[in-house]
Amino acid sequence: MSSQKFKVKKLRDQKPEDLLKDLEKLKGELIQLRTVKVSAGNAQKLGRIGLVRKRIAKYLTVINEQRRNSVKNAAKSSTKLPVDLRGKKTRAIRQRLTRSERAQKTQRQWKRLNNFPLRKFALKE
C-alpha cells in the first residue's frame, strides 16, 4: 500500500472477486494496526489507521455500487423495483394511494354521479 493518494477510479475497473480479496487484506492490516495501537506502537502506524479505514470504506462503496448496478440491470425487465432501489421519500408518501386507486369509486358513488348530475342554474340579472 503506497502513500500516494488512492484513486477510486481504478477500483471500478476491477472484478468483484479481486475487490473482496483486497478488502480482506485491508481488514487484516487494520487488525494489525489496532493491535500495535494497544501495545503502544509508534505514532506513524497510529496515523495509518484512519487511512486504512477510509480505504476500506472506498472498497465497500465500489462493491455496493457494483451490486446495486447488477440488481438494477436484472430488474429492468420486471415492473417493480426492489425495495432498496426505490426512492426513500417519506413514509406518508410511500403509504398513500396511487392516482388510479384514488380515482376508483364504489358502485354507490357511480350511481349517485349518474343519476344526480350537478345542476346548472341560469342566473337572472
Notes on the protein architecture:
Helix 2 (16-38) runs antiparallel to helix 3. Helices cover 65% and strands 0% of the residues. It has helices at residues 8-13, 16-38, 43-75, 91-95, 99-103, 107-115. By secondary structure, the protein is an all-alpha fold. The longest helix has 33 residues, at 43-75. The chain contains 6 helices and no strands. Keywords: Ribonucleoprotein, Ribosomal protein. It comes from Paramecium primaurelia. Belongs to the universal ribosomal protein uL29 family. This is 60S ribosomal protein L35.
- As a whole number of angstroms, the C-alpha radius of gyration is 29 Å
- What general form does the structure show? elongated
Q: Give the biggest beta sheet.
A: none
CA-to-CA gap between the ends? Answer: 90 Å
**Regions with little confidence, pLDDT below 50 for 5+ residues:** none
GO molecular function: mRNA binding; structural constituent of ribosome
Organism: Paramecium primaurelia
Protein name: 60S ribosomal protein L35
InterPro entries: Ribosomal_uL29, Ribosomal_uL29_euk
Quick take:
This protein has 125 residues and is mainly alpha-helical. The protein is built from 6 helices and no strands. It comes from Paramecium primaurelia.
Key terms:
125 residues, 65% helix, Ribosomal_uL29_euk, single chain, 0% strand
List the helices and strands and how they pair.
Blueprint: H1 8-13, H2 16-38, H3 43-75, H4 91-95, H5 99-103, H6 107-115
Helix pairs in contact: 2-3
